[in-house]
Amino acid sequence: MGIRSVFDGGELRREVEKSGIDPKFIPKIWKHILISAKDEDWDWEKQVPSLPSSAYSLLRSNFKTPLSSSIHSVFHSADNLTTKLLIQLHHNHGPFVEAVIMRYDTRLGKYAGQPRPGGLRATLCISSQVGCKMGCNFCATGSMGFKNNLSSGEIVEQLVHASTFSQIRNVVFMGMGEPLNNYSAVVEAVRIMTGLPFQLSSKRITISTVGIIHAINKLHDDLPGLNLAVSLHARPRHPLPDNACCSCFSFGKTHGFTASLSKEKSAENIY
Ligand code: SF4
């Protein structure tokens, strides 16, 4: 099978079905990995109890450890509100991607003059590619060029790692890579994140794109209810003309969101 993640949902399901195992065990496997993700000595029978014996042979022969990636380094901001994870892929032999946990206490903000309801929330910013081919000139990832697409499992594993630090409420695809250039893996990762055991609300997942229109249209059908952020930018000395990115604007009009655009230099959000 090569190096793969147990969170590569489609692949795992195919292998499980081929072995005659009921796929209903898959969320159970993921749940126990989520609970025990920090454990150093992994024993499938001990950490994921009560599976059929054929499931243990399949897991042991295909996945020597529960995760195909590991946390290489962790950086906390001085106020402890932000934690950056540098994650290494391919069992410590692969490239690095970044995932960032951003914490926020809603009670610090006001709504209609009153403290906002809620409490502590954590949003995870995740990567979908190693490098990126879009080459936005303000972006460090863009200057790397494109190296690799992440598999759906490698995307989901960032959530598993982050969950050992904070309970993640929101996920934003705003890390390394253009998510819509890795469409099928991103769609599968979102489906896994909204299913058991993660059960994130699709309303709390945002895909940020530079505006790949054909993929945006497809996404609207494949993952209804998901948030979309379109990032628009221009170089400081070359401001966007008034009709810039008209395809993004007309898409926004059709689908009921509006554009917030900086003509100077930065990426802005659209919902
Ligand atoms: S699409 Fe995103 S990751 Fe890619 S170069 Fe532009 S800003 Fe960077």
Quick overview:
The chain is an alpha/beta fold and 271 residues long. It has helices at 9-18, 25-36, 44-47, 53-62, 140-144, 152-163, 183-194, 213-222, 246-255; strands spanning 70-76, 82-88, 96-105, 110-111, 114-115, 120-125, 129-131, 146-149, 170-173, 205-209, 227-230. Strand 2 (82-88) and strand 3 form a beta hairpin.
List keywords for this structure.
31% helix; S-adenosyl-L-methionine; binds iron/sulfur cluster; 2 domains; 11 strands; disordered C terminus; seven-stranded mixed beta sheet; globular; metal ion binding; two-stranded antiparallel sheet; 271 residues; alpha/beta; TIM Barrel; iron-sulfur; catalytic activity
What would you say the CATH architecture of the largest domain is? Alpha-Beta Barrel
Counting structural domains, the number is 2
Shape call: globular
CATH topology of the largest domain: TIM Barrel
Q: How many helix segments?
A: 9
Q: In oligomeric terms, what are we looking at?
A: single chain
Q: How can the largest sheet be summarized?
A: 7 strands, mixed
The ordered H/E elements are: HHHHEEEEEEEHEHEHEHEH
CATH class of the largest domain: Alpha Beta
Taking strands numbered 1, 2, ... along the chain, how are they ordered across the largest sheet? 1-2-3-6-9-10-11
Strand content: 15-25%
What small ligands are held by the chains? Answer: iron/sulfur cluster
InterPro entries: Aldolase_TIM, Methyltransferase_A, rSAM, rSAM_sf
Organism: Glycine max (Soybean)
Pfam families: Radical_SAM
Keywords: 4Fe-4S, Iron, Iron-sulfur, Metal-binding, S-adenosyl-L-methionine
